[in-house]
Amino acid sequence: MKHQRRNYGQYCGLAASLDLIGERWTLLIIRELLAGPCRYNVLLANLPGIGTNLLADRLKFLTECGIIRQRAREGSKLRDYELTEQGEGLREAVLALARWGLGTLEQPAPGDIVRPRWAALAIEAMIDPSAAGPDEQYEFRIDDEVFHVSVLDGQVTVAQGKATTEHALTLTTDSLTFVKIGAGLLNPLEATLTNHLVIDGDEDAIVRCSRLLGLMA
């Protein structure tokens, strides 16, 4: 039996969207799945405070709505949650919200949590496609997460894992430092001088990557 949820009762695209994804925690679940398929316990760990019953309830509802689905891992009994094509359609909207939200961030309060998995989505939100330069890849190492940005024929993509070709630069930092740089709360040069940010690459590649991420005019 499907969940019975309150709705706005308005014949409007925005209201219809909020009927499905407007509840507390729902967009953060989608944020996790935009970074890639996740097991239940990983979702629970990356969403501290949600509670196991509430997470199960949200996942059930999103599955019933066709926004997410479960997928068995090849050669394993383990199952991951992943976005459906309909769920993937939320990417641009979530990126726009993340981009807007970065501009509202202030210094973190005691107890605020940050996860390296969120950095890939933050980078995707920061990217200015019009600033794409020559074909090359940039590798990011944020705590224990590794992902890369590829520029190919003017198109920019972000993917999990190490760069697939010889990359133009490697950026190594921690989650908090990266978010503070993205929010404009910390100057990349200052982070470099204090060894919170290490960049290995030639100067031209560093400039191109910085422009791509909107960190340099």
Radius of gyration: 19 Å
CATH topology of the largest domain: Nonspecific Lipid-transfer Protein, Chain A
Q: What is the CA–CA distance across the termini? A: 54 Å
Mean pLDDT figure: 93
Key features?
two-stranded antiparallel ribbon; 5-stranded mixed sheet; 217 residues; alpha+beta; 2 domains; Nonspecific Lipid-transfer Protein, Chain A; 7 strands; Arc Repressor Mutant, subunit A
Describe this structure in words.
This protein is an alpha+beta fold. The protein folds into two domains: about 15-90, Arc Repressor Mutant, subunit A (Orthogonal Bundle), CATH 1.10.10; about 115-210, SCP2 sterol-binding domain (Nonspecific Lipid-transfer Protein, Chain A, 2-Layer Sandwich), CATH 3.30.1050. The chain has helices at about 15-20, 25-35, 40-45, 50-65, 85-90, 90-100, 115-125, 175-180, 190-195, 205-210; strands spanning about 70, 80-85, 135-140, 145-150, 155-160, 170-175, 195-200. A hairpin with a 2-residue loop joins strand 4 (about 145-150) and strand 5. Helix 6 (about 90-100) packs across helix 7 (about 115-125) and helix 7 packs parallel to helix 8. The longest helix is centred in the first third of the chain and has 13 residues, at about 50-65. The protein starts with 12 loop residues before the first helix and ends in a 5-residue tail after the last helix. The relative contact order is 0.11. The mean pLDDT is about 95.
